[in-house]
Design goal:
The protein is α/β, with parallel strands linked by helices and 334 residues long. It folds into 2 domains: 159 residues, Distorted Sandwich (Spo0b-associated Gtp-binding Protein, Chain: A), CATH 2.70.210.12; 169 residues, Rossmann fold (3-Layer(aba) Sandwich), CATH 3.40.50. The relative contact order is 0.13.
């Protein structure tokens, strides 16, 4: 059920509406036997619009929405009547959604704000009626413009989770347990690798009504950038996080090696990820004494903040919140 409820990539065929044709018509009534041209313009084809909706967190509602075909504009009428525009299609998407063209791979739209509306595929312009082409030497034009065609193609909608902090670590490092302790989120927790197969989001209540969002991402293994484990399906979610919290269990054989593998996988996937803020948290540290903590600290990089925590005993949890808030607001405070 967890797997089917979280959908972060959709492939759909989209076609915006064609513009309505202009009308070739001449005024005829009981008072006017040979009137001039009065053909109206065609209506605009319908747009396909993406709209940000903060109440959505997955693309699940679009899973079976494979063809998006917008309405064509109506043909122009007599008496200079303009045809009706096609009815625009508005697709609600979660914040953090990007739209790409499948063939070229080009980024077309990015939705980051609630209520943000962007015309994804514009409808074709309606053609001009024959009344536009009347001149002193051609007072009865026998032609009108056809409407312009709409745009069409296979498109990819991709969701990159929006969160302030991303939890990064090997499978079974305790990320979901930490998320369940510092937020109200209830992720699946079990004693086996890849318990988390989709991102989980939670809001951390800080002091004085302040809060920030944290994402529990599926575990990284060596070779994830090449597609091993859950591969690229979760790595793209890390791109949105302002800060990455590396969770390394206290019982790891080599804390430095584990951190280096994680950083290496991020760098191979997208070198820009290495410019983000990093914090290292040594989890399950309730089993450590002071001497072991000193030994572990010697392994860790000096230029990256680190902290010892235990989600089970709540050790260091308050200090972790303080550290995360401080690092998230470091640029603002400057």
């Amino acid at each position: 059920m967890e797997k089917s409820n979280f959908v972060d990539q959709i492939r759909i065929f989209c076609r915006s509406g064609h513009g309505g044709a202009g009308n070739k018509h001449f005024m005829r009534n009981k008072f006017t036997a040979m009137g001039g041209p009065d053909g109206g313009d065609g209506g605009r084809g319908a747009h396909i619009i993406l709209k940000g909706n903060r109440n959505l967190w997955t693309l699940l509602h679009l899973r079976y929405y494979k063809n998006v075909l917008a309405e064509d504009g109506e043909k122009g009428g007599a008496n200079n009547s303009t045809g009706r525009d096609g009815k625009d299609i508005i697709i609600d998407v979660p914040l953090g959604t990007i739209a790409r063209d499948e063939e070229s791979g080009n980024l077309e739209v990015e939705i980051l704000e609630d209520g943000q509306e962007v015309v994804w595929l514009s409808g074709g312009k309606g053609g001009l009626g024959n009344s536009h082409f009347a001149t002193a030497t051609n007072q009865a034009p026998e032609y009108a413009q056809p409407g312009l065609p709409g745009k069409e193609g296979w498109k990819i909608l991709e969701l990159k989770v929006l969160a302030d902090v991303g939890l990064v670590g090997f499978p079974n490092a305790g990320k979901s347990t930490l998320l369940s302790v510092i937020t109200a989120a209830k992720p699946k927790i079990a004693n086996y690798a890849f318990t988390t197969i989709t991102p989980n989001l939670g809001m951390v209540d800080y002091r004085d009504g302040k809060s920030f969002c944290i994402a529990d991402l599926p575990g990284i293994i060596e070779g994830a950038a090449e597609g091993k484990g859950l591969g690229h399906r979760f790595l793209r979610h890390i791109e949105r996080n302002s800060l990455l919290l590396f969770l390394i269990p206290a019982d790891s054989h080599s804390h430095k090696k584990e951190f280096d593998i994680l950083v290496n996988e991020l760098g191979k996937y997208n070198p820009e990820l290495l410019h983000k803020q990093f914090i290292i948290a040594i989890s399950k540290s309730d089993m450590l004494d002071a001497e072991l903590m000193i030994e572990i600290e010697k392994e860790l990089p000096e230029n990256i903040p680190h902290i010892f925590i235990s989600a089970v005993t709540q050790k260091g949890i308050a200090a972790l919140k303080d550290l995360l808030w401080k690092e998230l607001n470091k640029e603002i405070q400057k």
